[in-house]
């Protein structure tokens, strides 16, 4: 029988209600995203703040290993098996199966199903869901060309009619006004999840960035980290009024960009134009580490200009 005030994930009828139960458990723990991440790390587990924020915010479906690490970090380790069984029912729509992934036997008791998943997790190391993601980068199976685009206005950067040829494989994207800094993951003031910021290029590894072709001469900005997996950047507006770039695990729902040659500064300098409006630029202290990347009206200024070169 549950104790008074105990969170009851087994009552969740779907993924949304399960996420609500996880939010309730976090609130009951009194811990911040950072503290939960640190607690999990102390137990030898990965619990990326950005991934957890996406799960609790309903943007991503929690994988079993994230649920287990989260529940233990919240201090509810005695009921991990119950949370895992509830997660499986929520994801599978209450049928006890979810199309083959982490499935249990029909009619399993929660404790039995949860223990089965725990045994499976103990036999393999599964990377956590995205979302503590990485540098902006550019990839393809071979060198590929991005054509010019009229973008948000005629005569903008990259509208000269020449094709932009980008390097393939992992790259570094460097704001031209900030010597020695690269775009990677970090935190913006007043926002919990990881977003794109500029930090010293030497701090980026082992993260990688790819610009993945998305059709119609556009790309998605995909980050990769061996511990956290992959995610793509999404232009979002937050309560502070900033238009930040946040990594989401569902790349199909994220922003597309056009890489256009800059009107000044040479052949390896580019503008990242957001499909739907605006260009990527650096906010605030443009040459300072930690300054976030934002979307803003395209103006061709140095704060919206980046070099794209192969990563070393």
TrEMBL record:
The cross-references to CDD domains, in alphabetical order and at most eight, read: beta-trefoil_Ricin-like
Q: Which UniProt keywords apply?
A: Membrane, Transmembrane, Transmembrane helix
Which residues are listed as membrane-spanning? 126-147
* Matches recorded under InterPro entries: Ricin_B-like_lectins (IPR035992)
Q: Does the keyword Transmembrane helix apply?
A: yes
Give the matching SUPFAM superfamilies.
Ricin B-like lectins (SSF50370)
A Pfam family: HTH_31
Q: Where is the composition biased (Polar residues)?
A: 301-312
Q: Which region ranges are annotated with the description Disordered? A: 91-111, 290-312
> Any idea what this protein is called?
XRE family transcriptional regulator
